[in-house]
Input
Amino acid sequence: MDTAALWQRYQDWLYYHPGLGLYLDVSRVRFDDAFVTQMQPKFEQAFQAIAALEAGAIANPDEGRMVGHYWLRDPDLAPNPDLKQDIVGTLAKIETFTKQIHTGNVYPPGQEHFTDVLSIGIGGSALGPQFVSQALSGIDPALRLHFIDNTDPAGIDRTLDALGDRLATTLVIVISKSGGTPETRNGMKEVQHRFAQKGLNFPRQAVAVTGIGSNLEKLAQSEGWLETFPMHDWVGGRTSELSAVGLLPAALEGIDIRAMLAGAKEMDAATRIPVVKQNPAALLALGWYYTGQGQGQKDMVLLPYKDSLLLFSRYLQQLVMESLGKERDLDGNVVHQGIAVYGNKGSTDQHAYVQQLREGVNNFFVTFIEVLKDRTGDSPEMETGITAGDYLSGFLQGTRQALYENQRDSITVTIPEVTPHQVGALIALYERAVSLYACLININAYHQPGVEAGKKAAATILDLQTQVMAALKATRGPISLGDLAARAQASDQVETLYRILRHLEANDRGVQFHGDRDRPGHLTITYHP
Output
């Protein structure tokens, strides 16, 4: 396509939202008008399905749940007055509690005020808050936010050691809908242990964000924690950033959560328009469908050209991959759907994997996130008339052009600057795009059987560890792996048994191997408490 035709295509397909100042360019995806016409019936069905979703239809039949994250930023859309009041009341409660913390009316025992926040959660309870904190907190937040988002002991130690004596002035937020998520529970217990070692009163510095009536809520209430905030069953983890999950830590940092909600509400309104060309989420879904032929055949490479948006790709990994990665469609057919998401930031990745993107396997499409405003204040010139921000813009445009010239498709999302309003809009844009795309490919975006299967498998491993250790402790003298497996009634799981014992040995848990390490089947094991 010559430059004049490409310029015309850009104008024909450019979306602009005047209120947000947001542009969306899908012109570098090579669909034609015939493809758009072909997709029209699918989009009409998708628009109807999303309207029903927002009206309170049961969208997650596995659990009999509605899906209502859209109501969080527009409570008037909630299907009944009780839900509306829950949303409005929770937001007011977050703001009241935050003000009490910031003014020192609520303070840690023996201290004047809180200085830090430690958020314990995993998946959607961590990725959204981490992204928003990185994007918006700045260098001088009202409170410094830290995360424990894994059950890695060394990582937990690193976070707690970095807090040091400030643990005495740290507010701990434990985020878990059920209260039984192992990683979050483990993080909480590790923090409680550290508090006890330092003689600190954990309940007087702890807050729970959890399901109503959950075990965690009961624990918090029985121990007298500072406060509890609700996680409603109609908000999934990967769409929970604009619930108490994300709003509470953001507010404590001093981020304008009302502006985030307003940006999301404004984007929601834009993505309700049932016309593909006038709906930015529909345009994204159209591009995703075309590039992957409706089967996720190409990965999404996300390149935000702004350091503060570094974690956007990690946030979208869960939102997109957990929502769309499904074995079966709504009719029960095996389809193996999904779109893999990866990325870092521009222009860093031009010195990393852009070489492969341009000349290697063409198994991806790129999404560029462009931010028009370079910084607050003037910029020095790197050369006459050229600033560092001009270089960044030039790198983005040059990479986009170079990829297109080599038959690589791309989408570009442009925002004026990184603000709470814009971040809220970006979150809403991709939430809606995921919902629409899921409708196009006939899958349920709101359940995650693969995640549950992984949790069950992990529990089975830990049960086996208990069995094996009981058998080993009852053994006198060395025993072979095979004999130990037989005693533990796990003869069909010798490899798993070996890996469990190897981990325990490395952590001085009384297990010791004897023999040639590169022949694990010939090793013997002893136990020394």
